[in-house]
Write a structure and sequence with these properties.
The chain is an alpha/beta fold and about 180 residues long. It has a domain of about 110 residues. The protein has a 6-stranded mixed sheet with strand order 1-4-3-2-5-6. Strand 2, helix 4 and strand 3 form a beta-alpha-beta unit. The chain is globular. It starts with a helix and ends with a helix. The N terminus is likely disordered.
């Protein structure tokens, strides 16, 4: 009997060692893995809500010596959530310099409480604006961007005066630093 139990234990150990841990590609990652799992019904954070005209006004060329970093993201977007810490770190590093970071959230309106919770947890509640992405005007993209048509995120626009850098897709910590340095 002892030999049977020992054999069963050895087989169980060997079987568990051969199991491969399930891997997720970025495309398979769910929204629950991308953003904080718990969301209070009412986060004690007030975020600005901007419409397409307000976003367009904000994106207009400003003739000053400030760098404007504008990142379009959603909490369900894994690449977006992966790059935001790079932006936050750069924002903290450049505090006091002539640079302004704005994160334009594209989550659907019914998920805005989740965004408020994320903003509070990430320390970005003064930098995130909510945009009802279901209602941009037909010319919103052609009027504001040279490369982005709203078909994918993340999207980052970095401007200083007439200089601009548009990036569709994630940026690394190093790429972000390089893009900002290029406009200094």
């Amino acid at each position: 009997m002892k030999k049977i139990l020992l054999a069963a234990a050895v087989i169980a150990v060997l079987a568990s060692c051969n199991k491969k841990e399930e891997a997720h590609t970025p495309e398979e990652t769910t929204a629950a893995e991308s953003a904080p799992a718990e969301t209070p019904e009412e986060a004690d954070v007030e975020l600005k809500e901007w419409n397409a005209d307000q976003i367009s006004d904000f994106l207009k060329t400003k003739q000053n010596d400030t760098i404007y970093v504008t990142n379009f993201f959603a909490t369900w977007c894994t690449p977006c959530m992966r790059e935001i810490p790079f932006f936050k770190e750069k924002m903290d590093e450049m505090k006091g310099e002539k640079i302004k970071f704005t994160f334009v959230n594209l989550d659907e309106r019914h998920n805005w409480d989740k965004v408020k919770y994320f903003a509070k947890e990430a320390g970005l509640d003064k930098n995130i604006v909510l945009f009802d992405f279901s209602a941009p005007t037909p010319d919103f993209f052609s009027k504001n961007f040279t490369t982005w048509r709203g078909d994918a995120i993340p999207f980052t626009l970095i401007t200083k005066g007439d200089k601009r850098d548009e990036t569709l897709g994630s940026v690394s910590k190093e790429e972000l630093a390089h893009k900002i340095d290029k406009l200094k």
